[in-house]
Amino acid sequence: MDPFTPAPDAQPEPDASLSPTPDTSEYEAALPHPGPLTAEQFMPVLPPDDFAAFLEELTRELPLVQDDAARAALNTRARVLRLNLEQYRVNHGVARATLTRVLAETGAGVRETWARQDAHLRFMNAASGGVERDYTRATGQIEEARRERFGVLTLHGARPDTQSAESFYQQQALSDLAREGHPLRPPEEQTGSKRVFNAFAVFSKFFVGVISGVSINLLFNPESRLYLTVIALTAGVMFSVLLLWLVDELAYRARLAQSTPGMGRPAAYLTGIVGVSLLYLGVEGFLNWDGILRVTQEIAANAAQQGQLTDLSAAGDLGAAPPHWSLLAFTLALVGMAAAAALLQGRERARGVLERERLAARVAQLKQTREYADAARAADAVAYLEAARDRLAPPRDVTSPDHARLNERVLNHWEQERDTQVQTLSAGIVRDARQLQDALEEFAGQVQAAQHPQRRGGLLRFL
């Protein structure tokens, strides 16, 4: 069998490019990984063997010194340097051992601290990487749901910008009602004239009430006392507003009674509207007519007393009612228009309520038939997936700030301890090596001078 041919039962290895496992190399912890420390890195001195070899070379040159006294002195000096060298060897060994122990103790603390920091950072990076992958996956699902929603809404004739199932059902209900001949009138645009009409419809209730209050004041307050005037005006406004509100409410109930079970017959509400309107017109007519008579009589009497009327007999009896039908008709027309505005407002309010109820009933019917369940689910899926994506959050370590600060304090302690002891030991061994080197240099100079003494010139050589 060919060794390069796979076994029959062997499964082919999956392609790495098609593997769903994401690459996590970009989420690795960005922390340094220093190499191990040795004592020699902090001992910038020569080993004792180098100094011993140099001293041995100098000692072998001592027999070449011709002067016995100088040779004896140099031998003594060499023995002293050997003692100094042995002491340096001892100091070098002690410093090396101490540095090794210090580096081991502090290095364990530093490595443990770095390990905790590295584990914490890896945890946070892995969590953030997982959340990012979940967020990307959720975003892809949302885009797919949006494409599906667009296709479903277009298929059913709904607006492509529909965001919820409730809006979709309302559109379908509006379409069904329009096909059945019950279209839902959109809310009227609040134009300038419409706002003015609504303002005058409200103002008419208070204005007619003020007229009623003035008439009541003329009837029951001939002396025009202030408190009675205030009472009369308040009573007139309350009478007008309450009666017109009653017309509005009766019109609202009469419109609802046609299609709402449990309410009275519409004819009863219509009879109430007619009765309240007649009462309102009668009372307002009597008050205004009587007030007009009283004001006219007072004006005529005041003019007669001042001699401003030339012929009082031609005007007839002062007690007779003057023909002011035009002012009375204007007042009654104003009262009738106020009542008609209240009637229209009540019926318009009832129409809006009935249309909303009919729309809600049709929406409930569509939901019960489950004809558009798939389309409604597709319309709501995008909002559901977006809410699920918004809930994604990395699993935070609640002690991470305290953990990081504690690690930083521990790391600073161990590094400071290591630096202090290393600097002290390094300075001591460097000082010992420098002293030994200076002594060897001085000894080498003495040996050189003893081997080659300077000859005296002139007469001094015989002395």
Automatic annotation (TrEMBL):
Keyword vocabulary terms for this entry: Membrane, Transmembrane, Transmembrane helix
Residue intervals passing through the bilayer: 196-220, 226-247, 267-287, 325-344
Region: Disordered, residue numbers: 1-36
Domain of life (superkingdom): Bacteria
Keyword Transmembrane: yes
Ranges of biased composition (kind: Pro residues): 1-11
Stated name of the protein: Uncharacterized protein
Species, as recorded: Deinococcus phoenicis
